[in-house]
Amino acid sequence: MLRRMRRTRAHTALAALGATALALSGCGTGADDDGEAGGELTIGTMTMPQSLDPAEAMGAALPFFQAVYDTLLLREPDGSYAPMLATDWSYDESRTELQLELRDDVTFTDGTPFDAEAVQANLERFPEAGGGQAQTLSDLEEVEIVDDHDVVIHLEQPNPALLFYLSDAAGLMANPNALDDDTLATEPDGTGPYELDTGNTAIGSTWAYTRSDDYWGEDLPYDEVTITVFDNENALVNGLRTGQINSALIQEVDQQDVVADDEDLHTVDQDIDMQSLLLFDREGEMNPALGDTEVRQALNYALDREAMLEHLRSGQGEITNQIFGPESVAYDPELDTYYDHDPERARELLAEAGHEDGVELTLPKMQEIVGDPLATSIENDLGDVGIDVTWDNLDEGDAIQSIMVEQAYPGMVMNNAQPASEWVTIVELVLPGTFNFLGTMDDTIAERTAEIQQAPEGEAADAAQELNRHLVEEAWFVPFYRMTYQHVTDDSVEVEPQSGMAVPSLYNYSPLD
Amino acid sequence: MSGTATSATTPATFLRRIIGNVQALLSLLVLLVILTLVALAPLVAGPDPTSADLSSAFGGPEPGHPLGFDSSGRDMWSRLLHGGQLTLGGAALALAVALTLGVPTGLAAGFYGGWFDLVSGWWVNLIMALPAMVVLLASRAVLGSTVWVLMVVLGILVSPSFFRLVRGTVANMRAEPYVDAARVFGLRDSRIIARHVLIVVRAPIIIQTALVAGLAINLQAGLEFLGIGSGDAPTWGAMLNEAFTNIHQNPLGMLWPGLALGLTSGSLVLLASALRDVLEDRDDQPHTSGPGEHPREADTPTTPRHAGARSELLSVRDLTITYPGADSRPNKVVRGVDLDVHPGEILGLVGESGSGKTQTAFSILGLLPAGGRVSRGSIRIGGTEVVGANERTLRRLRGRTVAYVPQEPMNNLDPSFTIGDHLVEPLCATARMPRSAAWKYARELLHQVEITDPDRILRSYPHQISGGMAQRVLIAGALSCSAELVIADEPTTALDVTVQAEVLGLLRRLRASRGMAVLLVSHDLGVVADLCDRVAVLHRGRIVEVGTTEQVLTAPESTHAQELRNAVLDDVPARQPWSPREVDAQ
Amino acid sequence: MINFVLRRVASGLVLMVVISVLTFGLLSIPDTDVGRHLLGPAAPQEHVDAHNASLGLDQPIWVRYLDWATAALQGDLGRSWFTSEDVSTTLANRIPVTLSLMLGVTLVTAVVSFTLGVWAGVRRGLVDRLVQVLAVVGYALPGFLITLVIVLVFAVQLGWFPAIGYTALTDSPTGWLATVTLPILSLSIPAIAGVTQQVRSAVIDVLHRDYIRTLRTRGLSSPRIVFRHVLRNAATPALTVLGLQFVGLLGGAVIVEQIFGLPGVGAMTVQYTVRGDIPMIMGVVMTTVIVVVVANLLVDVLIGWLNPKARVS
Fold it and tell me: Where is the signal peptide (chain C) (predicted)?
């Protein structure tokens, strides 16, 4: 009701300016279609895709791709898999061969059929094309074409997250005829429910999609979808409040407060990102002290997580000591509170390890992740037990460079998503690679991860829980808490969060009755 | 745009005037308090600005923490003062860089001109065309993300404003004869710059400095907002930005840094504008007033103490002109003057500089400079009382009954209009002549003032004609609406000797052909002797003698008239203090 | 006149070349690993190297510059390293947004500043004080603060205007007006504060000139003198300042575009520069230089038209 009054006044103001009609195009009209199917959906976001070429897709920008491409598998909001371009799938005994049965009624816009050859071309290109997620298919040996609508994916070794990947960036299927050109980046060519409306799209700020007339599947509820990128949440919230944006993810506590004050806005909470101090140097190569388990445990005991959560996030979240989220089989509720806030114990542990005189720790500080309050609270808590923290200010531009490539720091504060698939987390955080660039390993971890790798996803629960407990006990990480983010919608749209993802899939939006 | 009367300002009078200006004093005081607190931060701030206690985040004021705490639980008062060191220090650095780069180059470019002017001008264009944001960000990536780097770059980016200011002012004065004179006398350039040039550019630089300081402080805050800031060092901008991200949890957090920023840059602007008034206002120079500054508190004409027979054309009785003095005691520059000018008569009004003759002339035109007023007496032109008359009455008299020929011809023509416009506009507006007729008549007028190629002159702009020609044009302008009385204020002083004679001859001939009366204001008895029927001698605001020219010049009664007469022999035209002129008056 | 314009255009071209060299160099100095930044921490080094090579980053800097310059001369500004968007297309989309703001602000500023400045300079007294107060407020408040308050009041609370977004003039003139009104208002306040001061100062200066008094003795009315003679003579310094303001708006637009979520050139500048997206930033820089050169040229031509003396020099 309130919103209607506001819009009426907008008309008056414009009339006063000598204008005759309110004709906001683009992102202005989102709220005009209260709940009726066939309207327009405007999503605001702060993440933008580098390109619309599936080979360069990243999970956080997936909705931009889901509009124009379909994935082989559909990942439901709860994280389970459903048929999409592939109608059926099965592993062999060794779990290195995945057989996929494909739909036979799908064609690309130029008439090229979607078939086994298309799958082969896409999948084999993905790890080679050098996109940000290319390593997710690094185990791919070959894609064998059985017949027009059956393929077998051969892996060098089992990968329990393969289905996840096939429902994510790696599973996006583009027209095989377009794969060799550079055009996909700006002229996507897929089988998806929408087409990119290049006339109304301004890459870098607004992507406009219109319904594809002959979509093979069930139509999504909106005729038009616009995804607009902003660089601050203040603008997002203003847009939500004026009805110019239908839905957006709000992460900052202060903006969440604003949303809470606006009765017209609806929110769905989701604990997505775990914020933690990721340690890289568990063998003490850069900072010998970190090679001592006691020191890493002391770090965990030193932090007053309750106070941090209360003051930094207004209590919006859950404290935790583990890297796996509640949707994962590896999750163990006990491990959320394995380390109490116990400065005394921390000092004892440091003394046991021979660091009575204290430990020095230099960490990178990126304003986007580590604000002053977080930095000072970590500095104070650790300083309390004799760990002297120095923050190095890094710009967004050279952060990855100096942390990952020059390997200049023994750890960093980071926000990581907690997907349902434990293997995704293991690959990202535990196994040698991205966040374990020094390649640290121990026997327990090697054995448990091997066990998990051999089993179907989610079925090696015991091994996963053992691994998790081991990582917590060995204090490989210093997790703080899972942060509550809010999916905010106006009164016309309903959104269902996507398990383990900050950004809901495009399929999760529907008109609110 | 630059200062006019600055050369007369010594540091002492400058200080005195600042103290006399409430606005300047107050804003200086505020700045001084802020600067002192910031400078003494280590002593008065209390806790360490970086020491934080998360449990007191957003806490209100408490003993020892007068302003409460920020989102990290750091003491706001301490951060405000320490932040001030970076903020104000940064602004000072930016200014220092801008001044160092802009002023010397501007001086040199303006003074010497030539290739240096060309090259530096090109560089300045280059700096101004640089995309500031990109340069700031890129330099930050190269040089490091501290306030100091940003401020040095900002200093470079704003240095063109100083360069242009200084160059413009200096180039303008460079054309002045006295600078040439100083060179002829063998003064070294450095000395000329120090003694003459710096004094002229001083005021504009001070004003610009105050403005740029405010700009630098606000820009820094803006950069913080964009996340291009000082890292975790406290600055007012960083504090404001931090408070903004928590504005809903702690709305008061924006108050203090906002106030510090606002007070500082606000005071700087106020100071700049007060300085402009103090340093640049020409209130001590008798010039004309703006239209809004007319004697609104219209002085009513007073009954003359001795009426006598009043001339029907111009009759001045008991005229007293007052200016507000130093300590607001009225300062009478003309006292009890009686004058009559009869139709067709030329009356010389003589006296040395400062005797009040020009003031008398302006009061007759109803155009006393700002602050001046007729405090007593009566002025009648053609039977109409001028003292206390409204704008409309005065306007009806001006042009048609009484006209004016100024002293300095070049300064009295609007540089943006052609000579034709100058002559035609009053004809259309005052004499209600149709435009084409006015053009024809203007041509005729130029003929009358003995200009041989009127068509070329009509099309010319003032800077394209000589001083003598300009004076003829001004005389033509005075004649245009057939005024019965022309007030000529030293009409030949600014002209060289041969032109002087021509103009005097012209005036004489015009009087003969048109029968108009002239009130000739002059300090030059030679001119008076040449032209006038009668002479009135003014000394220190009083008429000391009136009589026929012959009588006054050959047998003066008053000592002042005698002195004046004796002085004629070694008379040197008195020069006005320097003021920037657009063009040389030949 | 034509000669003058041609000379200025030529010097503008030289300026473009020099600035392109300077900024290209400046942007290339920080040794950011673009490929790594693009592909993220997880990508294997050979992919990163291959990506860098495909961007030409394995070449020495002068080769890279020459490659860029040769392509640019042929009208090809390249593609963004980070979003693959065509630089020319992006600029064509974004420049109208920023230019809308700049022209709008300049127009509003010119009208309001000249009105207020002339009024204050001629009337002095109370009006003058008010204008001074306005100037102080405009100067004293950081621009982003003014903008934030304006959005909250006029868009979010009162709902009179959209809070975010931009509608192209060609799509809907009224929509365009609605989306640019508040941004223009936000940017105009500080600009008006500055320019009004200049106009006022120039007007007072002109009013003190001898020729104004002489014009008065010709029987001309005050309004006539103010609007014909004072305004024209005061316009020269005021136009110079207005021109500087216009150029300064290129920077000022950054914050306003962010707050209003406007897809203009300003909003992208920060992000793309921080990332080191050289093709895109070079495109922005070249556009900026063109805008600055054209703006300065226009100001000079305008001043020459108003002020005959400026024509000879």
Answer: none
For residues C62 and C126, state if they share a domain. no
d(CA A72, CA A298): 46
C118: closest CA of chain A, how far (Å): 26
Please check whether residue C84 lies inside any domain of the structure: no
- Asked if the Cβ–Cβ distance from B248 to A258 is below 8 Å, we say yes
Question: CB–CB of A281/A290 below 8 Å?
Answer: yes
- Are the CB atoms for C199 and A52 separated by under 8 Å? no
Partners for A (CB, 8 Å, 3+ pairs)? B, C
Domain of C66, in residue numbers: 2-73
Contact B232 A375 (CB under 8 A): yes
Share of chain A above pLDDT 90, in %: 50
Fill in the amino acid letter for A401: Q
What are the domain boundaries of chain B? 73-280, 314-401+485-585, 409-482
pLDDT of A5 strictly over 60: no
Nearest to C280 by CA among C13, C30, C55, C101: C55
- The CATH homologous superfamily to which domain B314-401+485-585 belongs is P-loop containing nucleotide triphosphate hydrolases (3.40.50.300)
Cα torsion angle, B266, B272, B274, B277, sign: negative
Task: Report the chain C residue with the minimal C-alpha distance to residue B258.
Answer: C141
For B225, nearest residue in chain A (alpha carbons)? A232
- The tokens describing B470, both together, are 């300009």
- CA C1, CA A175: separation in Å to the nearest integer? 58
Which helix or strand (DSSP H or E) is residue A275 part of?
A: strand A266-279
- Tell whether B227 lies on the interface with A, counting CB pairs under 8 A: yes
- pLDDT tens per residue, range B223-249: 887 777 766 678 888 888 888 888 878
Helix, strand, coil content of chain B in percent (nearest 5): 55, 15, 30
Identify the closest residue of chain C to B27 by CA–CA distance.
Answer: C136
For B220, name the nearest residue in chain C, comparing CA atoms only. C142
Q: CATH fold of B73-280, please? A: MetI-like fold (1.10.3720)
Q: What is the ipTM of this complex?
A: 0.83
Q: Quick check: helix, strand or coil at residue A456? A: coil
Is the pLDDT confidence value at C91 over 50? yes
Q: What is the C-alpha to C-alpha distance for residues B202 and B165, in angstroms, rounded to an integer?
A: 11
Q: How many domains does chain C have?
A: 2
Please say if the pLDDT value at position C253 is more than 90: no
What are the distances in angstroms from CA A214 to CA A171, A218, A271?
Answer: 21, 10, 37
Calpha distance C238→B5 (Å, rounded): 22
Distance from CA of A128 to the nearest CA of C (A): 8
Q: Give the pLDDT mean for A488-512.
A: 89
> Testing the interface with A: which of B51, B53, B71, B139 to mutate, by most A Cβ within 10 A?
B71
Q: A358 near A287, Cβ under 8 Å? A: no
Nearest CA in chain C to A187: C85
Residue C148: which of C102, C194, C186 has the closest Cα? C186
Tokens of A83: 């048929």
- Residue B1 to residue C237, Cβ atoms within 8 A: yes
* Chain A environment of B52 (Cβ under 8 Å): 373, 376-377, 379-380
| Range scoring the smallest mean pLDDT among A352-366, A488-502, B290-304, B508-522 | B290-304
Q: Which residues of C touch B227 (CB under 8 A)?
A: 270
B138 touches chain A (CB under 8 A): no
Check if the beta carbon of residue B67 is closer than 8 Å to that of residue B49. Answer: no
pLDDT of residue B306: 58
A13 pLDDT more than 70: no
B399 touches chain C (CB under 8 A): yes
**What mean pLDDT comes out for the span B264-283?**
74
Contact B342, B399 (CB under 8 A): no
Residue C129 in any domain: the answer is yes
Sign of CA dihedral B187, B190, B194, B198: positive
